[in-house]
Design goal:
- It contains 15 helices and eleven strands.
- With 442 residues, it is α+β, with helices and mostly antiparallel strands.
- Strands 1, 2, 3, 4, 9 and 11 form a six-stranded antiparallel beta sheet that branches. A three-stranded antiparallel beta sheet has the order 8-5-10.
- Helix 4 crosses helix 5.
- It is globular and about 55 Å long.
């Protein structure tokens, strides 16, 4: 594990893996000279209106083609030639140039960006890259909301008074994304009662918000869909006709989508038998209100032209791999432990709440590996046995992993207690989190 972390910490190692990309010693800087932007205020307002009214908006303005091709190739090389998650592409200058382009497009100064800054919207550092190949039976995220505030009041507070969300994702297609090779699908805001009402049954003292009372004193649900709010998908799709409201969002290479934290969305399974099929390669960046969700890095911001140094990039990669570990089928137990060790060494660079979630997810990942419940595509007992054997083969007798898991729990014991009390709820279908993109609706 130490040799692995030593390799990861050496920028020369990564330059050799992706020689077409660069890693500047000081992080490099961003220039906006070549950035495509939307000059017309009317067009920017139309996009913002779509985002507010529908929960998403399609951006046809293309990102820098040279950056797109280089970053896209690096993602494919990392996945196919080196069996590493696509998110390691965040280590390179070109990826951060794309991130800076995104910020310039969405939050340009003097209110020339698509989003209104409200004085508090910022680059959040919640970043991920994808390489989805239907021929390898890969799919995108299952249906989910990106954030699930705990109360109806908190949900309402996650929007500004003008309707703009306080958490917005910018998803960029680095290669064409379509139904054949997987693309995003959404249920627009106007067809999703849980978007603004929440997905939990109303509290008894707030029942008037969602129910009416007949002459006999019986309460009748007045919202769209069933009074049982435990399944947001069923509530949004109560009839055969309602399935026609689902929208596919195919994008050409370089085009993108912005969407809010509340929209129900997912990455589809492509068609492995389609002709001339290629993997779906994409990257995403998040913007949030600093009071709603603070940036993940405490000592660096994207406000200036300077891009983050290599050490912070690696810290972010390791943190994100732990947060989303269930989505990466090429993450070994050794990889997880290396990620944790690096995050532990640089913990003071991470926002406290985010750091807590990173360490918690490491504990969950190690517990799953220990218990042999890795998702290997098998549902029978043989699959579970094979998963256990693989876990043992990576960790010897497992004592090192147990020690690491306990160490993480002990170091953050004051933070883990409440989360473990809700451990079953965390992964259940009807329990979200303000929390995590891993919150799924099956």
């Amino acid at each position: 594990m130490h040799s692995l972390l030593s390799s990861w910490s050496d920028d020369v190692y990564w330059r050799k893996l992706c020689p077409q990309l660069t890693i500047s010693s000081d992080g490099g800087s961003f220039t906006s000279n070549t950035v495509q932007k939307i000059d017309e205020q009317k067009e920017r307002q139309e996009l913002l209106d779509r985002l507010i009214d529908d929960g998403y908006a399609l951006l046809d303005v293309l990102c820098n083609s040279d950056l797109r091709e280089k970053v896209g190739k690096s993602i494919s090389d990392l996945e196919l030639e080196h069996s590493l998650p696509a998110t390691f592409a965040l280590l390179f200058d070109e990826t951060w140039q794309l991130a800076a382009e995104s910020k310039h497009l969405l939050l340009q100064k003097q209110n020339k960006g698509i989003l209104r800054s409200h004085g508090k919207m910022c680059f959040n550092f919640d970043m991920l890259a994808w390489h989805i190949d239907p021929r390898r039976e890969q799919v995108g995220f299952s249906p989910h909301r990106d954030r699930q505030p705990d109360t109806l009041h908190a949900l309402k507070q996650s929007f500004y008074s003008d309707g703009q969300a306080k958490y917005i994702t910018h998803w960029i297609a680095l290669a064409e994304a379509n139904p054949n090779n997987s693309c995003l699908y959404v249920i627009p805001k106007q067809f999703d009662p849980g978007y603004l009402e929440g997905d939990d049954p109303p509290e008894s003292d707030d029942s008037s918000d969602a129910t009416t009372t007949d002459d006999s004193g019986n309460k009748n649900d007045s919202s769209n869909g069933s009074s049982n709010f435990s399944d947001p998908l069923s509530r949004a799709l109560p009839t055969k006709q309602s399935y026609q409201n689902i929208r596919a969002l195919p994008r050409r290479a370089g085009e993108s989508v912005i969407f809010t934290h509340r929209i129900l969305h997912w990455g589809s399974a492509g068609n492995p038998h389609a002709s001339k099929i290629h993997p779906r390669v994409a990257i995403s960046f998040v913007y949030s209100d600093v009071d709603y969700e603070a940036p993940y890095l405490t000592n660096f911001s994207m406000e200036g032209a300077q891009l983050p140094p290599f050490s912070l990039r690696l810290l972010l990669v390791c943190s994100q791999l732990l947060i989303y570990y269930q989505r990466f089928d090429n993450l070994s137990t050794q990889h997880l432990r290396a990620c944790y060790e690096y995050c532990k060494q640089h913990a003071d660079e991470l926002n406290e709440t985010y750091r807590k979630n990173v360490f918690l997810e490491f504990v969950r990942a190690m517990k799953e590996r220990r218990d042999g419940i890795e998702n290997d595509g098998d549902d029978d007992d043989t699959g579970l046995v094979n998963a256990k054997e693989r876990s043992r083969s990576c960790t010897g007798d497992g004592s090192d992993d147990e020690e690491a898991m306990l160490e993480a729990m002990l170091e953050n014991s004051d933070q883990f207690d409440d989360d473990y009390d809700d451990a079953e709820c965390y992964d259940s279908d009807d329990c979200g989190e303000h929390r995590s993109k891993r919150t799924k609706i099956r």
